[in-house]
Design a protein that fits this description.
The chain is α+β, with helices and mostly antiparallel strands. It folds into two domains: about 1-30 and about 45-75, no CATH class; about 120-260, Immunoglobulin-like. The chain has three helices and eleven strands, in the order αααβββββββββββ. The strands form two sheets. Strands 1, 2, 3, 5, 8 and 11 form a six-stranded mixed sheet that branches. Strands 6-7-4-9-10 form a five-stranded antiparallel sheet, with no helix packed on it. Helix 1 packs across helix 3.
Length: about 260
C-alpha cells in the first residue's frame, strides 16, 4: 500500500510544474486588496488570509520537497555500453597459380643450301639399300638423303668402327655434271676435330675431312654428309662415290662405295 502511495506521489510530483512567482504574486495581491465595507472583524479576515497564504506556501514547499525527493530517490539510468562485434581475422587469398605453359621450340627445318643439325651418333646406321663396304674394324654405307630434290642433294655416309681410330680421312666425290655447287657439310663428330675442305678437282666436287693430329675417333657409329645444288639439269648419283682411310691399334683399314637412293 505504501509503495502504491509513494508511486502516485512521485508521479504527481514529476507531472506538477508550480509557478512560484505567480502564486506569491496572487497571495500579495490578496493581502494588499481594498477593505470590505461591511462590518467584519478585520483581524479575523486578515488572519484567514494569512492562514491561507501559509497553507499555500506550505503546499508549494511540500510539493517541491516531494519532487526533489523523487528526483534524488530515482536511480540514474544505466549507460548502455555497445560492444563492437568481433570480426574474424582476415585471411589472405593465395595468388592464382600461373597456368601459363612452357614454350616448345619447333624442330629445326632443313632447307637446301644450309647444313642441317647432325643427328646422334647412336642413331646413325646403314640403310638397307645403301652401298655398303667393310674392311677390318670399319664398315660403311652410302645413300642419298630422302629430303633431296631435283634441285638440291645431300649425300650421306655412315661409318662404323669397332675400335678407336687415331687417323681418319673421309672423302666424298660428286661428279660435276654442269652447275653442281657446294652448299655445305656436316658430321656427327665434333667439327673442331677435323680439317674440312671442299674444292673442284678432276671434274668433281671433292669434300674431304681429315682428323687433326693427336685426336682419336671413338668406336661407334658416325655420319658425314655433303650438300650441293644440282644445277639446271637433273642429275644422277651413279658416278658419285666415297672413300675412307683409317688407322687404329689393329692397323690400317679402307672402305669405299657409292650413293644409292633410299626411297
Amino acid at each position: 500500500m505504501n509503495e502504491d502511495i509513494d508511486r502516485r506521489l512521485r508521479e504527481a510530483a514529476e507531472a506538477h510544474r508550480p509557478d512560484r512567482a505567480r502564486m506569491l504574486a496572487r497571495v500579495e495581491r490578496g493581502m494588499a486588496g481594498p477593505a470590505v465595507r461591511h462590518r467584519a472583524r478585520p483581524f479575523a479576515r486578515s488572519g484567514t488570509r494569512v492562514a491561507l497564504a501559509g497553507l499555500a506556501a506550505g503546499g508549494i514547499l511540500t510539493t517541491g520537497g516531494l519532487a526533489v525527493a523523487a528526483i534524488v530517490a530515482t536511480p540514474p539510468p544505466t549507460p548502455t555500453v555497445t560492444t563492437p562485434a568481433t570480426l574474424p581475422p582476415a585471411v589472405s587469398s593465395p595468388p592464382p597459380k600461373s597456368a601459363r605453359p612452357s614454350p616448345v621450340a619447333p624442330p629445326p627445318a632443313t632447307t637446301p643450301g644450309s647444313a642441317r643439325p647432325a643427328p646422334s651418333a647412336t642413331s646413325a646406321s646403314p640403310s638397307p639399300t645403301a652401298d655398303e663396304s667393310q674392311d677390318g674394324p670399319l664398315r660403311s654405307a652410302g645413300s642419298l638423303d630422302p629430303k633431296s630434290t631435283v634441285y638440291w642433294t645431300q649425300s650421306n655416309l655412315v661409318l662404323r668402327t669397332t675400335k678407336p681410330l687415331t687417323s681418319l680421312t673421309v672423302e666424298i666425290r660428286i661428279v660435276q655434271t654442269g652447275g653442281a655447287k657446294n652448299t655445305g657439310t656436316w658430321q656427327t663428330l665434333p667439327s673442331g676435330d677435323f680439317t674440312v675442305t671442299v674444292q673442284e678437282a678432276g671434274g668433281a666436287l671433292v669434300y674431304r675431312w681429315v682428323l687433326k693430329p693427336g685426336l682419336t675417333v671413338p668406336a661407334g657409329s658416325h655420319e658425314f654428309a655433303a650438300q650441293f645444288n644440282n644445277g639446271v639439269d637433273a642429275r644422277s648419283a651413279s658416278g658419285d662415290g666415297y672413300r675412307v682411310d683409317a688407322q687404329g691399334s689393329g692397323g690400317s683399314a679402307s672402305v669405299r662405295g657409292g650413293f644409292v637412293p633410299t626411297r
